[in-house]
């Protein structure tokens, strides 16, 4: 079995407003999950419910995690930063706040998804400079926080692991590396929610080639952590007439928000080649760091799925992925 420790994003334990962060963390720990990614909005809701400042909330969550032996992995997601039209001074000011919260949580990583707004800069020098300044800010105070940069499959400038790795190499900071998510690889080079088959043309070949290049080219030390998620095949192929569609929203973003069960949950329509991706990213490159579940299951919004149930699903999913990663590659 893979030696990686298992974490889970707090939002993946429930999206129901009545399920508060501290209860979600307890549920994860009780299920045997070793780490938690704190979603900022979950922490904000916790602070508002308890009527305490968010800084106090972060300190309380850190104390809770110490008491129940679960580690905070990251604070997430610090979105739409690099190349934004908002003045850099304002963005860095907001980043300073997030980094302060991350340090109070004792989170080693701040997760930064690639920008996905349409009005951002396309200038590579600007993008790299923005990310260098963020990295330098994150390392200017002890403890150093590392920036886990995640290529979104609908990202405006960066949407693949290769473009993200190129960015990591150009930023050239020890505390700047990759957060890799199977959903984004799967929906960028293999899946298509607008296709009746749920797959792109030449999907198997494109994924196989991408994973071969990854194993050959991606330095293991630049993989900060790996996120696992599956995706449902749409019963009604995506179009602007689909009930989930929003004008101006990328179809992959729509897919991400509504239909991301835990890996290999075929009972919920899971259909991405998560095992093949995970095998390349984890087993073939010898990655022994954190693996985290980040799912967005619409069935978790109404409160009928408890955090305890979600945590058990996460653990069972990881067991299945581990077992299948040891098997013969399909690609």
Automatic annotation (TrEMBL):
Pfam family, one: AP_endonuc_2
Database matches in Gene3D superfamilies: Divalent-metal-dependent TIM barrel enzymes
Domain Xylose isomerase-like TIM barrel: 25-320
InterPro entries given in the database record: IolE/XylAMocC-like, Xyl_isomerase-like_sf, Xyl_isomerase-like_TIM-brl
The name this protein goes by in its record: Xylose isomerase-like TIM barrel domain-containing protein
């Amino acid at each position: 079995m893979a030696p990686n420790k298992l974490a889970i994003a707090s939002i993946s334990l429930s999206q129901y407003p009545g399920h508060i962060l501290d209860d979600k963390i307890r549920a994860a720990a009780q299920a045997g999950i070793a780490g938690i990614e704190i979603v900022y909005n979950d922490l904000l809701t916790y602070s508002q419910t308890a009527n305490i400042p968010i800084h106090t909330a972060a300190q309380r969550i850190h104390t809770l995690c110490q008491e129940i032996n679960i580690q905070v992995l990251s604070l997430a997601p610090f979105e739409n930063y690099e190349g934004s039209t908002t003045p850099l001074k304002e963005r860095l000011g907001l980043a300073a706040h997030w980094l302060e919260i991350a340090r109070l949580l004792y989170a080693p990583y701040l997760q930064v998804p690639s920008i996905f707004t349409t009005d951002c800069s396309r200038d590579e020098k600007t993008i790299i400079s923005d990310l260098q300044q963020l990295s330098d800010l994150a390392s200017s105070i002890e403890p150093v926080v590392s920036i886990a940069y995640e290529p979104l499959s609908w990202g405006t400038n960066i949407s693949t692991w290769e473009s993200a790795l190129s960015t990591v190499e150009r930023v050239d900071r020890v505390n700047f590396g990759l957060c890799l998510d199977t959903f984004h690889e799967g929906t960028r080079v293999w899946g298509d929610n607008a296709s009746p088959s749920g797959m792109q043309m030449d999907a198997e070949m494109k994924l196989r080639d991408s994973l071969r290049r990854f194993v050959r080219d991606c330095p293991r030390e630049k993989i900060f952590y790996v996120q696992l998620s599956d995706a449902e095949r749409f019963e009604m192929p995506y179009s602007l007439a689909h009930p989930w569609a929003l004008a101006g929203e990328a179809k992959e973003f729509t897919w991400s928000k509504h239909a991301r069960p835990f890996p290999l949950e075929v009972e919920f329509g899971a259909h991405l080649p998560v095992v093949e991706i995970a095998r390349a990213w984890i087993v073939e490159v010898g990655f022994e760091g954190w693996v985290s579940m980040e799912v967005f299951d619409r069935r978790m919004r109404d409160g009928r799925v408890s955090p305890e149930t979600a945590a058990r699903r996460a653990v069972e999913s990881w067991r299945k992925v581990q077992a299948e990663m040891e098997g013969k590659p399909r690609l």
